[in-house]
Every structure is written in structure tokens, then in C-alpha cells.
Amino acid sequence: MSINRVIISGNLTRDPELRQTASGLPVLGFGVAVNDRRKNQQTGEWEDYPNFVDCTMFGTRAESVAKFLSKGSKVAIEGKLRWSQWERDGQKRSKIEVIIDELEFMTSRNDGPSASSHQSSYSAPAASPAPEVNASVYDEDIPF
Fold first, then answer.
1. Which CATH number characterizes residue 49's domain?
2. How far apart are CA 73 and CA 64, in angstroms?
3. Domain count for the chain
4. Cα(144)–Cα(66) distance, rounded to whole angstroms?
5. 109-127 pLDDT, tens per residue?
6. Domain residues for 45?
């Protein structure tokens, strides 16, 4: 068994790009900067080192989300890693990207990228409604 789940939060490094596949499926692509905090061996100070992660979202949700994102927007993303390889100009290229399942806006549309002290959360529209939870089911009722 293997698990392929990723959770990241950071700021968009560029404006999102909305495209469509040949069959008309919307595809949203953007980059997210995620900081890694490490101690500098020479100075002893803690420093942030950015990691730049390519992210891709598919479907009608991609169209909806694209309207609210711009460079600098802070987001939280849950998804899975996908490795792809291709050849361009005779050279093999590859990349790892996050395929987005869930996206949460960490800054509101009016706050802009610099408003990290005021955190507003918005969830991307769900693909299907959440199932109803029956309050009469308790842990003792579950057979495992």
C-alpha cells in the first residue's frame, strides 16, 4: 500500500493560467512558494528557504477558483503528487506537481497578498455535497 497525499500552504508566485484541454476540460495552473525553515550553520540564525511548487487543478472548480486568485494570494492546498516527463528540443524534461483536490483561500479577495494578519478562509466549491452525518451513530456502534 502507498499513500500519495500532500498538504501545503503558501503564496502564489505568479498569476494563475487557465487553459483548456482539447476536449474542453478546464485546467488551472500556478506556482506556490512554500518556506522551509532551517538554521544557518554559519550565523546560527533561523532562515526561510523557499520551495517553489507547481500546482494544477482540473474541471469546473478550476474556472471558479481562477477568478479569485492572483500573484501573492495565500492558499492552503490538499492534493496528490504527480510526476510527468516529456521531451522538448531533444532534451528530456520532468517535473513533480501537486494535483489539487481541495483549495482554501487564506486571504480574502479585498485583503490582497499583504494582509496575512487578517486571515479569512473560503473553501473552494465542493465537487459534490457533503454527506449528512447521523448524530445517532456512536463509536460503540462501530464493529471495529
1. 2.40.50.140
2. 15
3. 1
4. 43
5. 555 544 443 333 334 444 4
6. 6-141
CA 91 to the chain's CA centroid: 29
Q: Compute how many other C-beta atoms are within 10 angstroms of the C-beta atom of residue 101.
A: 15
1 in a domain, yes or no?
no
What end-to-end distance do the CA atoms of the chain give, in Å? 20
16 inside domain: yes
Across residues 44-71, what is the average pLDDT?
Answer: 95
Q: What is the pLDDT of residue 1?
A: 87
C-alpha cell at 125: 466549491
Per-residue confidence (pLDDT) for residue 111, from 0 to 100: 56
Strands 91-105 and 46-58: parallel
* Strand 6-12 with 26-39, pairing: antiparallel
Question: The whole model's pTM is what?
Answer: 0.71
Nearest to 128 by CA among 25, 56, 59, 30: 59
The number of residues in the chain equals: 144
Residue 115 forms part of a structural domain: yes
Three-state secondary-structure class, residue 141: helix
